[in-house]
UniProtKB/TrEMBL annotation:
GO biological process, one term: cytochrome complex assembly
Pfam families from the UniProt entry: CcmE
Source organism per UniProt: Hyphomonas chukchiensis
GO MF annotations, alphabetized: heme binding; metal ion binding
Source lineage: Bacteria, Pseudomonadati, Pseudomonadota, Alphaproteobacteria, Hyphomonadales
The entry's keywords: Cytochrome c-type biogenesis, Heme, Iron, Membrane, Metal-binding, Signal, Signal-anchor, Transmembrane, Transmembrane helix
The protein, known as: Cytochrome c maturation protein E
Amino acid sequence: MAAALLLAAAALAFFALRQNANLFYTPEVLAEKGLPAPGKDVKVGGWVEPGSLTYPGDGSEMVFTIIDNSPETITVSFTGIAPDLFREGQGVVAIGSFDAAGLFTARQLLAKHDENYQPRELRPLGAGPDQNAS
């Protein structure tokens, strides 16, 4: 009886952890495995391709390309206010879904930074945007 309860608890834990894993798809993984079903909520991530950020229409929508270390890309459309750290060349994770044509529509953007990030307020006066205090 105890073994059956332990096995059931382990199975429940496994399925709960698998459903809540915070993994994201990179362009290379999507090219290998194929796109998820249209409308299915997923996370995609990589770097914002330099030169790809555009603001079509009235400027509330942005479109950009996510890249990784492969020739594959993901085109992302997002309407809203991007995080302060969001910019070309930086890491990003987008949460949303693909449409039937393969365009990813994000409902949330999470900007990532490297370990050298320092808030503007903590930089010494006169330091440029790419300089960090020691």
